[in-house]
Design brief:
about 120 residues; alpha+beta; 5-stranded mixed β-sheet; 3 helices; 5 strands; about 20% helix
Length: about 120
């Protein structure tokens, strides 16, 4: 197994200026690893090994989200490793990212009613 090299569909970076957004993806690629022709045995197979769905709520509209972002990382498996019975671990995750600033401000103004009762008892 090896880490994916630079291909348009395997760019793994957090630098958004280098992202290549697409509407299509693949889970297994047996075409681009072929050396001579479309009928030859692929030397490398690319497999989606890490899939992350990122969801962010819209800050100006309650209950709405921005378009979800699906990040896919690909690993490569060589033909000889496949013949030897190599396996690949696949992970899938969903990440919900929200700005907590307004939530923290809202919580700081809310008090536990039991605390209010205790304060009133001390004042009397």
């Amino acid at each position: 197994l090896s880490s994916a090299a630079f291909f348009p569909h395997t760019l793994s970076t957090d630098d958004r200026t280098k992202w290549q957004l697409t509407r299509r993806l693949f889970l297994i690629d047996t075409i681009s690893g072929r050396q001579s022709s479309q009928t030859s045995t692929p030397q490398v197979i690319r497999v989606a090994d890490k899939i992350e769905l990122q969801i962010r709520p819209q800050t100006r509209s309650d209950g709405l989200i921005y378009l979800p972002l699906l990040r896919v990382h690909y690993a490569e498996i060589r033909q000889r490793d496949i013949v030897a019975g190599a396996t690949i671990k696949v992970s899938f995750s969903v990440t919900y990212k929200a700005d907590q600033t307004s939530l923290e401000q809202g919580l700081s103004s809310v008090q536990d009613p039991r605390l209010e009762d205790e304060e009133q008892e001390r004042d009397h």
